[in-house]
Amino acid sequence: MTATAPAEEQLWSRCAGCASLLYRKRLLRNLDVCPECGAHARLGAPDRLRQLVDPASFVALADRPADVDPIGFVDVLPYPHRLTAARAGTGLTEAVVCGTATIAGHRVALAVMDFRFLGGSLGCAVGELITRSAERALDERIPLVLVTASGGARMQEGALSLMQMATVSQAVAALREAGILTVSVLTDPTYGGVAASFATNTDLVLAEAGARMGFAGPRVIRQVTGRALPEGFQTADFLLRHGQVDMVVPRRVLRGRLASVLAAAAAGRPPTLPPPATTAPRPQTPSAGTPSAVPESGGTAVAGPDEDPWATVRAARHLARPTTLDYLDAAFDGFVELHGDRLGADCPAVVGGLARLDGRHVVVVGHQKGHTTAELVARNFGMASPAGHRKALRLMRLAARLGLPVVTLVDTPGADPGVRAEEHGQAAAIAENILMMSCLPIPVVAVVTGEGGSGGALALAVADRVLMLRNAVYSVISPEGCAAILWPDRSAAAQAARALRLTAPDLCRLGIVDEVVPEPQGGAQSAPAVAAELLRRAVAANLTPLLDVPPATLVRRRRERFRRYGAARVTGVGVR
Ligand SMILES: [Zn+2]
């Protein structure tokens, strides 16, 4: 009896690599790897778990994502509708499945992402669930295995999703401090905020054969550079050649390879005590569904009715707006610029060095734009290369050794969307900064002075106090980028700017920013000296109370700050 059409579909599937028609059962036996061409089909999280862990050993975490829409995001569809559709389509509650299991007898905590669920995007609930997996690993002192598959941060949750890069990274940092192995397995595709945080700041990074990983996606890079991309760009073999992954592993040996590294970690003798002050306690779930309390008093004026966010975006990009070097000249004294990443480059888009603020010695690091086209080109429009992030890292570590506070000035459209930046490990460079900032034993004050563009901005903004100039913006993605993805045409940038909640008052309300720094009438560019004085006062007022805080307390509080953002998005079992 011949099968009907629907049954035929279930019996056979076509390889995305070589278009061979394959008998489904044969494909399954081969772990969804094409026997003809070796193409690795994408796996959902449940299938991935079945392949990796010992039978019947997986126990899901009891935590469940709550139904929330933190910024009331609407594009052509309200965000809750997209969530509902993703849940119905996948049978999952979120884009990650977390729990504990054994792999060849080694107990691990696991988080496995699922690209089918809203592109595996990193939202608050996903960040929170992965963080809880990491905390479980720390509690039980067992390795953490992260299997990544993601397009990046979930733009429908605005800057709150951007913060998840820091939340998960500091949990990875706590495991690093405790001497507990962390392993990420990059699967296809791993991009954006996931690539630039926990996919690459773990101890070991394995890439499944055929996986692609990068910070900027190939389409964006092609658009920006107008160039064809090199053969095999961002593939696992490319990543291996450029020193970004430990190994490329075909799916059939992935489980065995994981077992080997877990066996090695089990044989080692990790240091006995983690520094107790640096692990952030689990926060209480805030009652109102907001990620944190609204700051009680801004200290400075928060302007009344908000103007159109799109107008603020344009103000933040104004060519005459003071740059980091302008502020270093006018708000700080005695700036001595320090150059270089000590690894072969000096990025002009990041400036930094020693300076004084009100007579106090500090280390300042910031993005540098320019006022003319020539200056902008020379500074790569304030878009840091991996060398820029590594220079910033070097200077912040220097500050830690010298016991000097760090002030960062954030003004970047984002990290550099270029071929070389990807070859030089952009994702890992950003990821390491985000992680390391959660460990700095010195006060850190960040000021978003102009554009706070996604991961490139966060790489300088994991701080004790985060300030924002009144006309600055801070966002998980540019309004143009968001419009291009979620709206039928990119002219919807103004609508996207409104949906993203990227202005200083909005971010203050969300608890991401502590204080809005006022600007002179007409914007900072209309009276740069006044703007510099307002910035100086705000930084000094925020820095001074931090100076007497013991280092361990500083680190603990900083981690509590970044731990809060996802907590309201997840409930314990039984709590709805
Ligand atoms: Zn094939």
Which helices and strands, and how do they pair?
Elements: H1 5-11, E1 12-14, E2 21-23, H2 24-29, H3 45-52, E3 59-60, E4 64-65, H4 79-90, E5 96-103, E6 106-113, H5 124-140, E7 144-150, H6 158-178, E8 182-191, H7 192-195, E9 204-208, E10 213-214, H8 218-225, H9 236-241, E11 247-249, H10 251-267, H11 309-316, H12 324-330, E12 333-337, E13 350-357, E14 360-367, H13 373-378, H14 386-402, E15 406-412, H15 419-423, H16 426-437, E16 444-453, H17 454-458, E17 465-469, E18 473-475, H18 479-486, H19 493-499, H20 504-509, E19 515-517, H21 528-543, H22 551-567, E20 570-571
Helix pairs in contact: 5-6, 5-22, 6-16, 6-22, 11-19, 14-16, 18-19
Describe this structure in words.
This protein has 576 residues and is α/β, with parallel strands linked by helices. Helix content is 38%, strand content 18%. It contains 22 helices and 20 strands. Strands 3, 5, 6, 7, 8, 9, 10 and 11 form an eight-stranded mixed β-sheet that branches. Strands 12, 13, 14, 15, 16, 17, 18 and 19 form an eight-stranded mixed β-sheet that branches. The protein has a two-stranded antiparallel sheet with strand order 1-2. Helix 6 (158-178) links the parallel strand 7 and strand 8. Helix 11 (309-316) packs across helix 19 and helix 18 (479-486) crosses helix 19 (493-499). It is globular, with a radius of gyration of 23 Å. Residues 15, 17-18, 20, 34, 36-37, 39 line the site of zinc ion.
